[in-house]
Design goal:
By secondary structure, the chain is mainly alpha-helical. Helix content is 68%, strand content 0%. The chain folds into two domains: 45 residues; 38 residues.
Length: 88
Amino acid sequence: MTAREVLREEVKQYIEQADDKSLRIVKAILEIELEEETDDNGDGEVDWDELPEELKTRIDRAIKQGNEGGGMPHEDVVAKYYGKWFRK
């Protein structure tokens, strides 16, 4: 089973147990995502030039920190937060 398939199954489980408020939130998120997929360039991506300057600055800083050995490896983030965010 691919990572995408595993994720879909996990989301389905959450959806089955979700209350009305959570379902409305998920629906809104998916609708926004669908709108972004149909943007002008058609690839679902936001053009760098369209981003606010503050966000560009923060992204550049994060990339620089990562290149200099800063940040936290993905495996560490998963180990620290996965159980907190995805309790079964």
